[in-house]
Amino acid sequence: MQPAPRSFIDTRLNQLSRQQMIQAVTYGSQGSAMQGFSHLLDTAEIAAVVDFVRDQFMRRQAKNTRYHTVENGWEGHDEKYAAAYPFALGEIALDTPFESLTENQKLGWQLFMQGCVSCHDRAQVLQEGDIWQKRPVSFPRNQYSHLQPDAVSSASIYAEHDKGPSLGKLTAQEQRGQEFFKANCAFCHGLDGSGQNWIGSYVEPHPRDLRNLKRDQWPLSRIERAIAKGVTGSAMPAWQHVLQEEEISAVARYVQRLAQHYQDESAQGNR
Q: Which is deepest, 42, 87, 169, 209, by most CB within 10 Å?
């Protein structure tokens, strides 16, 4: 990711000389997205641009240089987008678990993602991860099966997540859990448990990445409770009226085994 564009409003005149700015506009700034304009502007035009920036942005800090103004089509911006400010300013990380946000913060998150993120990028996140997140533009067609993808979906970027890992020898209980997981849970979580398959990427908020469930934070009892009761504020339903207790326990055992597989694999890769 390129560094954020320089804010001239926060730059003192004596910290950035006129000549330095002329050099940057002429030749660009190495290590940033700032390109040189010598092929478009002559010397006098470059100097005029620099002098305008120094006068308006750095000396006067004039209001007409602000973007979110009525003149720029942002009437009532402060009132309409107030809930999104904590995300734009980095006060609340953008990847904060959705279910932990207040109702007003959830509204702010949605406003930010719908209108602010294109310019403010990710503001602040707890985990850097990928710069861009894959997102499907449509729900799968009729007759779609995550177990037998059609010719189109099998060639998509989501297909890799509908391939389950080889976990070696499973106990009889884990095998029962695996069967139910493949037939039901994998529809949203993917066969690899990532939640990054077609359906999982479509659902908002995305299904939890089961590969990251650490035993000290997610003991068997907590996984069983999530399966039985569902997860508030998400698409995760309660299965307590569909499955018997021993069936819920079997699924939980398999999920735990699945998570352990990926964590062991990661630990080996880091050695």
A: 87
**Residue 134 forms part of a structural domain:** no
Conformation bin of residue 176: beta by default, left when phi > 0, alpha when psi is -120 to 50:
alpha
| Tokens 């990928």 -> residue | 130
Question: Is residue 84 within 8 Å of residue 115, measured between CB atoms?
Answer: yes
| pTM for the predicted model, two decimal places | 0.54
Instruction: Verify that 89 and 169 share a domain, yes or no.
Output: no
User: Quick one: tokens of 203?
Assistant: 């659902």
- Write the pLDDT tens digit of every residue in 162-186: 888 999 999 999 999 999 999 999 9
Does the residue 125 lie in any domain? Answer: no
User: Distance between CA atoms of 33 and 21, rounded to whole angstroms?
Assistant: 15
User: Taking the CB of residue 84, how many other CB atoms lie within 10 A of it?
Assistant: 24
How far CA 216 is from CA of 99, 219, 220, in Å, comes to: 21, 6, 10
Q: For residue 254, which amino acid is it? A: Y
Amino acid identity of residue 69, one-letter, is T
Domain with 242, as residue range(s), is: 158-269
DSSP 35: B
Q: Is the pLDDT score of 188 beyond 70?
A: yes
Contact call for residues 170 and 155 (beta carbons, < 8 A): no
Token digits of residue 131: 């710069």
Strand partners, 20: none
CB 194 within 8 A of CB 200: yes
Please indicate, yes or no, whether residues 59 and 81 belong to a single structural domain of this protein.
no
The per-residue pLDDT for range 4-44, each reduced to its tens digit, is 555 555 555 567 899 999 999 999 887 777 889 999 899 99
Summarised one tens digit per residue, pLDDT across range 57-77 is 888 877 666 678 887 778 888
